[in-house]
Design brief:
Length: 221
């Protein structure tokens, strides 16, 4: 099956109110144009440089979709991220949030990345620090927190990821219950190709899908 059919099959399988972010790392502009024509609404990129190339190659078509930064963001790349991306899903510290706030002249929607597996080598805010970090970021005038994002540990059996999705959902509901000013907590971004069904069962309303649409990546950067 082609990538357009794959996209439409996944789209048909999951509820309408769950957004699909096409995880596009290593994919080219021709593939993305095919998916945009097939109805894709949201594209996620991990690398600023790669995103800039495909964004420019897509021309007017690029403006039909929302662009999500889903990779680790270094402070020295913020100026390149802001013109392209509509959402930064990987805000994982107050320092990074402050750096974005300083460099932006518009309100940038961001999600807070949660290290739901508490893995020391992985990025994301530790669950027990989420409230404090979110309270502090909520005071920055050029950022608007729109939700939470998590990767969760990688397992061969996606069922093993369920507790981490459940934990992130709990944090999401808890933060919403606090009615912190200047928050717009609507999105819970979790679930990838092998885990999106479980993530949706646990309350995800945004899944980031690469392999199930494109097939296996030939290389990872
Ligand atoms: C690559 C990637 C995905 C998608 O992974 P697949 O297993 O290919 O669906 C989702 N989220 C992030 C942050 C990624 O880097």
């Amino acid at each position: 099956m082609g990538i357009a059919e794959n996209y439409q099959r996944v789209r048909g399988e999951i509820p309408d109110d769950v957004t699909i972010v096409v995880a596009a790392k290593t994919r080219n502009a021709v593939e993305l144009a095919t998916l945009i024509d097939a109805g894709a609404t949201d594209i996620g990129e991990n690398y600023v440089q790669e995103a800039t190339v495909v964004y420019n190659q897509l021309g007017e078509k690029a403006k039909k979709v929302r662009w999500h930064m889903i990779g680790a963001l270094q402070k020295n790349k913020i100026n390149k991220v802001l013109p392209i991306f509509d959402v930064i899903q990987t805000v994982d510290s107050l320092k990074l949030a402050e750096a974005i706030d300083k460099r932006s002249d518009r309100i940038v929607p961001v999600y807070i990345e949660i290290n739901s597996g508490k893995e020391p080598q992985k990025s994301g805010v530790m669950p027990e620090e989420a409230e404090e970090t979110i309270r502090r970021i909520s005071h920055l005038k050029n950022l608007k927190i729109g939700g939470l994002m998590t990767m969760g540990p990688r397992f061969g059996n996606p069922e093993d990821a369920r507790p981490y999705f459940r934990e992130t959902r709990k944090i999401f509901e808890y933060i919403r219950s606090l009615y912190i000013l200047n928050l717009d907590m609507k999105v819970l971004s979790m679930g990838m190709s092998n885990s999106y069904e479980i993530a949706i069962e646990q309350g995800s309303n945004m899944v980031r899908i690469g392999t199930a649409i494109f097939g296996e990546r030939k290389y990872d950067k």
